[in-house]
Amino acid sequence: MSRILIIGEHDGRQLNQSTARCVACAAAINSASIEIVVLGASSNDVASAAAALAGVTGVLTVRTAAGSPALAAVLAPQIAALAAGYDYVLAPSTTFGKDLLPRVAALLGVPQLSDVMSVLGPRTFQRPIYAGNALVTIEVPDGTKVVATVRGASFKPVGTGPVAPIRAVEVSASLPTHTRFVELRSGKADRPDLQTARLVVSGGRGVGSAENFALLYKFAEQIGAAVGASRAAVDAGFVPNDMQVGQTGKIIAPELYMAFGISGAIQHLTGIKDAGTIVAVNKDGEAPIFEIADIGLVGDLFEIIPEIEKRLR
Amino acid sequence: MQKIIVCLKRVVDYNVRIRVKPDGSGVVTEGLKMSINPFDEIALEEALRLREKGQAQEVVAVSIGPEDVQQQLRTALAMGADRAILVQTSAELEPLAAARILHKIVLSEQPGLVLLGKQAIDDDCNQTGQMLAALWDRPQATFASKLELKGTVATVTREVDAGLEVIEVDLPAVVTSDLRLNEPRYVKLPEIMKAKKKTIDVVAIDSLGVDAAPVLRVTRYDTPPVRSKGGMVKTVDELVTALRDRGLLA
Ligand SMILES: Cc1cc2nc3c(=O)[nH]c(=O)nc-3n(C[C@H](O)[C@H](O)[C@H](O)COP(=O)(O)OP(=O)(O)OC[C@H]3O[C@@H](n4cnc5c(N)ncnc54)[C@H](O)[C@@H]3O)c2cc1C
Ligand SMILES: Cc1cc2nc3c(=O)[nH]c(=O)nc-3n(C[C@H](O)[C@H](O)[C@H](O)COP(=O)(O)OP(=O)(O)OC[C@H]3O[C@@H](n4cnc5c(N)ncnc54)[C@H](O)[C@@H]3O)c2cc1C
Question: d(Cα B246, Cα A280) in Å, to the nearest integer?
Answer without folding.
Answer: 16
